[in-house]
Write a structure and sequence with these properties.
Elements: E1 14-16, H1 17-24, H2 28-36, E2 42-45, E3 48-52, H3 53-62, H4 73-81, E4 89-91, H5 92-98, H6 103-111, E5 117-121, E6 124-128, H7 129-140, H8 150-159
Antiparallel strand pairs: 1-3, 2-3, 4-6, 5-6
Helix pairs in contact: 4-7
Length: about 170
């Protein structure tokens, strides 16, 4: 006779959106994008949006500090430069060709929440072209390198003095 399962069920804990932003130092945009893309479970309680805390914590660690610097003036200038592309969807493979960057790098950036995923389907990912353009320019400027510590290089770049004719 089979033994009954003895592993306890985990009860999901939810945290209000404003508390998640404050506790995990992530932006509202990142969290709402993750909810809209189905990456974080959310429920409404009255007017309050409650997020699955375990997933919020996981994504805050995966973002390696980029969300804490999302409002930095250098990043804001780049986002403004590519604001005309905001909301334009571009397939991942087309973005890789257009911006001359590896599709695996774009995929990792999207999975980490740095690039907004507009839609997921059997055809692949549709990305927000504005985010793609910003991150590709950051890579060209040397602000992001591939491999471990890539976001640390972004922090260093953000804290360095501006270069002539740069952002």
């Amino acid at each position: 006779m089979p033994r009954p399962r003895t592993t306890p069920r985990v009860i999901e804990q939810y945290i209000p959106l404003p508390a998640a932003i404050k506790k995990y130092h992530v932006t509202k945009k990142l969290l709402t994008d993750l909810v809209n893309n189905g990456r974080i479970k959310a429920v409404k309680s009255g007017a309050t949006l409650l997020l699955e805390e375990r997933k919020v914590k996981m994504f805050s660690k995966r973002s390696d500090g980029i969300v804490a610097t999302a409002d930095h003036p250098k990043l804001a200038a780049l986002r403004k430069k590519y604001a005309h592309l905001r909301g334009n969807s571009i397939p991942l493979l087309e973005a890789a060709r257009k911006y001359d960057v590896s599709d695996s790098i774009l995929y990792r950036w999207a999975e980490r929440g740095f690039i907004t995923v507009i839609n997921r389907g059997s055809f692949g990912l549709l990305l927000d072209e504005s985010d793609v353009a910003v991150f590709c320019e950051l890579r060209t400027l040397g602000a992001i390198r591939s491999g471990p510590g890539s976001m640390k290089s972004l922090q260093q770049w953000l804290n360095s003095p501006p270069l002539p004719n740069a952002v």
